[in-house]
Amino acid sequence: MKEHWQERFSSKEYYYGKEPNAFLLAMQPYIPKGNILCIAEGEGRNSVFLASKGYDVTAWDFAPSGLEKIKKLAEEREVEVKTELHDLADVKWKEEKWDAIVHIFGHFPKPVFDRTIEGIKQSLKPGGFYVGELYTKEQFQYGTGGPGNPEFLCDPKTLLEKFDGYFVKHFYIGEVERIEGRGHTGLAHVVQSVLQKR
Hints:
This protein is α/β, with parallel strands linked by helices. Helix content is about 30%, strand content about 30%.
């Protein structure tokens, strides 16, 4: 899987474009200023956007080619984003480190997804936010983006159960239009979350 993403991000083209995810763009005013982590960040469109809004942003990905493109885009937009090479399958999460964690279209095998959500919960500060937009299992019928393996897609009910006890600022399941480079093109089925750690 690493080889797939390393190869995808090796081209000059930004596969998912350079502009931020539309949901993140809409929710940004609700995200408190502070230390923000973007996981499975790919080529940097979301982390660079947040840095341009004055956040202290760190981006994680497991493809070195993706991290290089984050640095390039940050330089182009004249902002600073810290980049770290991490595989979510074995990364060590620090206790109560982040004011918000952004998770946009990061889809993984179930054991990695479960581990990642537990790590997010551990690593958010009290009052911190999980901000996510993920494809639901219905997305497999749309063919407009997302993983080819339906097992990697998100079950909204499971997501809510995992964040039991969090304050739900926003939660939406349904259709949205997403035009994000070549990777996401057209009508899609997503689950959107803004969940606050109490």
